[in-house]
Amino acid sequence: LNFRHLPPDCWGDCSQFLQRQRVLGIYRNMLRTIRQVPDEADRKYLADWRETHIRHQSQTQDAIRMMITQANNHLEELQKSLALARS
């Protein structure tokens, strides 16, 4: 992303906004994916895991970026596992 066209005092707020949007997008994708898990106990476990690993509002920007990457990786793994279970 290129923030050069924005005033410098906006860069921090804009990047925080964009990171928040990414986190919310991952959170929504996790909700959708977890709903597809057939076993209710597994859905509960995954929902608890999601709450533990996604909701970190007091983290630094670097930590948030790292958690976004990890959450995306976990989500992709879960989606692949579900796809394999269906086939």
UniProtKB/TrEMBL annotation:
<dbReference type="InterPro" id="IPR008011">
    <property type="entry name" value="Complex1_LYR_dom"/>
</dbReference>
<dbReference type="InterPro" id="IPR045293">
    <property type="entry name" value="Complex1_LYR_LYRM2"/>
</dbReference>
<dbReference type="Pfam" id="PF05347">
    <property type="entry name" value="Complex1_LYR"/>
</dbReference>
<comment type="similarity">
    <text>Belongs to the complex I LYR family.</text>
</comment>
<dbReference type="GO" id="GO:0005739">
    <property type="term" value="C:mitochondrion"/>
</dbReference>
<feature type="domain" description="Complex 1 LYR protein">
    <location>
        <begin position="21"/>
        <end position="77"/>
    </location>
</feature>
<protein>
    <recommendedName>
        <fullName>LYR motif-containing protein 2</fullName>
    </recommendedName>
</protein>
<keyword id="KW-0496">Mitochondrion</keyword>
<keyword id="KW-0809">Transit peptide</keyword>
<comment type="function">
    <text>Involved in efficient integration of the N-module into mitochondrial respiratory chain complex I.</text>
</comment>
